[in-house]
Write a structure and sequence with these properties.
alpha+beta, three-stranded antiparallel beta sheet
Length: 106
């Protein structure tokens, strides 16, 4: 697993487009719909590791959200970009074009 600047950039760009926050697997699903290179896409097995490191760096923050599903309390972490993450993005996204939408069948 590589914790690269490009993956960090992709995750921050996705979170910046969703100010109310996203769960880790939602970030993965959005990344799968984007035209990204194989190594740039966030993956199911590593997204929470990346988000944890980014939280340690002050680029994202998380909060625990509990859902009641069939009588069971399920806790998930909702991630949002921080002001530090927003300041970090312009420094790292210059010259890169992400988010070319893939045509969806109608």
């Amino acid at each position: 697993m590589f914790y690269t600047e490009r993956k960090k950039k992709v995750i921050l760009d996705i979170l910046a487009q969703h100010p109310k926050g996203l769960y880790g697997l939602d970030i993965v699903k959005i990344g799968e719909k984007m035209r990204l290179g194989f190594l740039d896409r966030p993956r199911r097995g590593s997204i929470h590791v990346y988000l944890g490191r980014m939280e340690d760096e002050g680029l994202v923050r998380s909060r625990k959200v509990t859902h009641d599903i069939e009588g069971h309390a399920i806790a998930r972490r909702l991630y949002t970009i921080t002001s530090n993450g927003k300041r970090y993005r312009p420094k790292t996204t210059v010259g890169f074009r992400f988010f070319t939408p893939i045509a969806t069948p109608t």
